[in-house]
Automatic annotation (TrEMBL):
PANTHER family: TRNA-AMINOACYLATION COFACTOR ARC1 FAMILY MEMBER, TRNA-BINDING DOMAIN-CONTAINING PROTEIN. It comes from the Eukaryota. It comes from Tetradesmus obliquus (Green alga). This is tRNA-binding domain-containing protein. Residues 30-49 are annotated as: Disordered. PROSITE patterns: TRBD (PS50886). It holds the Pfam family tRNA_bind.
Length: 241
């Protein structure tokens, strides 16, 4: 009786061993899982744990948001006006600055210190129309107050010499005319003072493009009279500042 039980147990052991031997082997290591975004101290998602493909998308989205912010500053806060240079003279204690008196229309005449002495003569500037950023906070340059900023483009000629030229308002423009993006309208009112860090957002997008037109990220700058341009010696792609 005992031997029969032993034989039955032995047979059962063989069956169990056979079953174990044919079972699929466990994987050597678990497949890596994608970690979920974690929150930083401000509660926003961190891109450090995002899948690799998501990180560039997040960077691209952030860049797009920054560009939108710069466009908003230009269209709603940065006041750019046509001005006539009433007089221009060199500054005794500076080789770079010219002291300008600029008529911004409506009886608004301001002193502007412009770093143009090495590129444009006072005689060329006097009587000309230019475009100025008119609501930046007044500053002092070489001890002289400067109440606006003349906008100009910079390039190198065939010999490698730097040339600088001011923006050209369209024919028929008058002092005080507002400069804005083509397809948009100037706001009813601008802030009295535009913060410098906000203006710095705008500057990288200001370039010469599309055949000598002054543009912001490809959109032309215009007045009510037409396109703002640059002289032909300034090539497309040149920066405006």
């Amino acid at each position: 009786m005992a031997s029969s039980i032993d034989k039955a147990i032995a047979k059962l052991d063989q069956i169990l061993l056979a079953a174990i031997g044919t079972a699929p082997a466990a994987p050597a290591a678990a497949a890596p899982t994608k970690s979920l975004p974690t929150s930083n101290s401000t509660g926003s998602a961190s891109t450090s744990s995002l899948p690799a493909a998501a990180a560039p998308a997040a960077v691209k989205a952030a860049a797009g948001k920054a560009a939108e912010g710069a466009r908003e500053v230009l269209t709603t806060k940065a006041q750019i006006k046509v001005a006539r240079i009433v007089s221009a003279e060199p500054l005794e204690n500076s080789a770079k600055l010219l002291r300008l008196q600029a008529d911004l229309g409506g009886g608004d005449t301001r002193q502007v210190m412009a770093g143009l002495a090495q590129f444009i003569s006072p005689q060329q500037l006097a009587g000309s129309l230019v475009c100025v950023a008119s609501n930046l906070k007044p500053a002092k340059l070489a001890g002289q107050p400067s109440e606006a900023m003349v906008l100009a483009a910079e390039a190198a000629d065939a010999a490698g010499n730097i040339i600088v030229r001011t923006l050209l308002p369209p024919e028929g423009s008058q002092p005080g005319d507002l400069v804005h993006l083509d397809g948009s309208t100037a706001p009813a009112a601008y802030p009295k003072v535009l913060k410098l860090d906000e203006w710095r957002k705008v500057v990288p997008g200001l370039v010469v493009a599309k055949g000598g037109k002054a543009t912001f990220e490809g959109t032309p700058l215009v007045t009510s009279q037409g396109l703002v341009t640059l002289p032909p010696e300034i090539p497309d792609g040149s920066e405006i500042h």
